[in-house]
Design a protein that fits this description.
There is one protein chain. By secondary structure, the chain is an alpha/beta fold. It folds into 2 domains: about 160 residues, Aspartate Aminotransferase, domain 1 (Alpha-Beta Complex), CATH 3.90.1150; about 250 residues, Type I PLP-dependent aspartate aminotransferase-like (Major domain) (Aspartate Aminotransferase, domain 2). The chain is built from 13 helices and 19 strands. The protein has a 7-stranded mixed β-sheet, with helices on both faces. A 4-stranded antiparallel β-sheet has the order 13-14-17-16, covered by helices on one side. A two-stranded antiparallel ribbon has the order 1-2. A hairpin with a 2-residue loop joins strand 11 and strand 12. Helix 1 packs antiparallel against helix 9, helix 2 packs across helix 9 and helix 11 packs across helix 13. The longest helix has 20 residues. The chain binds 4'-deoxy-4'-aminopyridoxal-5'-phosphate. The site of 4'-deoxy-4'-aminopyridoxal-5'-phosphate (PMP) has 14 residues, from helix 3 and helix 4.
Length: about 450
Amino acid sequence: MTLAIPHVRPVSGGLPGPIPPVVGARLTVPLVDGRRVPYANLDHAASAPCLAAVRDAVDELLPWYASVHRGAGLASQVSTKVYERAREVVRRFVGARRTDAVVFTRNTTDALNLLARALPRTGGTGTSVVRFDTDHHAALLPWRGPLVRHISSVGSLDRALQDCPTGPRLVVVTGASNVTGELWPVADVAAIARHHGARIVLDAAQLAPHRPVDVRALDVDYVVLSGHKLYAPFGAGALVGRADWLRAADPYLAGGGATSLVADRDSRLAVSWSTGPERHEAGTPNVVGAHALAVACETLGRHWDAIIAHERALLTRLRAGLAGVPGLRELSLLGGDRVGVVSFAVDGQDPGLLAAALSAEHGIGVRDGAFCAHIATRRLLASAGATGTRALRASLGLGSTAEHVDRLVGALRSLVTHGPAADYEQVDGRWTPAPDPRPLPPLLAAL
Ligand code: PMP
């Protein structure tokens, strides 16, 4: 069986094996009625649980943990090798070119801000940027100035690029929407961009945890992603892509590690900045985070068939179940294929109150709000015929099971039909049970 996935690398054949296990799969949570139930984490799109393989790899590294690139001791040298190996693993994971830079960042937001700062400002005009107004704020907001324009659909891209002044151009495109999970036609966007000599950056924060990404097959120049969405919650993300703009740009942060030489010449500092990825990684690097990210990449890379099959089955079950909840309106931007993310509104229901009751009465974690994509969420709610500016989002991943999906659907049906069983009040804008007898875990006991 070959799963042909639009705009991503086809997955090789063979029966899907078991999915890689995650930490916390047996977590139980207290409910307001005093019971304890297994936690149904349906919020993978915000942050995914840690892979067991990542936790084990971090454990294995920690005795060897020492400062990268600095020490003469063996532990420091091991840490340095681990860190540099991680770059190569991440490069392979996204199918990047041998000459591409792999820069470790904190997350996708950090990576996109770094790229925004590295855009060429030469030739008097600077770099024109075209991005979609429905993007996540991380992809929408870092670009500033008169050469930035936003468009609402792929249909407007050709025109927007035609209108750009001469000079470098960059198109920002999202792999999978964090609101609807829908896949953007990245290769089509790239083809239009190429026609106008523009570069393309792919925000793969939501795509990379669910589907293989191949920057060469997609013909994109840069890709950004977050470890915490890729089952590696240790504070690392990455920017991978063409090295030339990054090499020419001012260092993202100024400080140790980003320089090859600092000297005092006639009472003035003479600084030679490094020309490799470390140019933008000043300060002590996050070797644990980089290693965790690399191990997550390797683990996902070995299990794509199983991961995709698992998520497809759960997504079908979820959407079919939600379709039967009275008054529920699913949000959709593009139609077509999607990763395991579904956002919706329910007529006459406050999404914040539903989310609070799902947690307090059913042990289910979902997200409510506008998902750091205010324009997209508002537009989608309006086009679904829903009132309000907030929605609910259920997102699936390796920690999700059919029982979680069925519990969510059953709980929504019951909440929509009978209302919550407990009382709730708003505290700082969030609904919480009043009173809330749920004990916190021992790790918070001292607070
Ligand atoms: N892009 C998309 C599509 C996202 O879903 C997110 C996170 N919700 C981001 C960017 C930002 O990621 P981070 O918060 O890890 O920087």
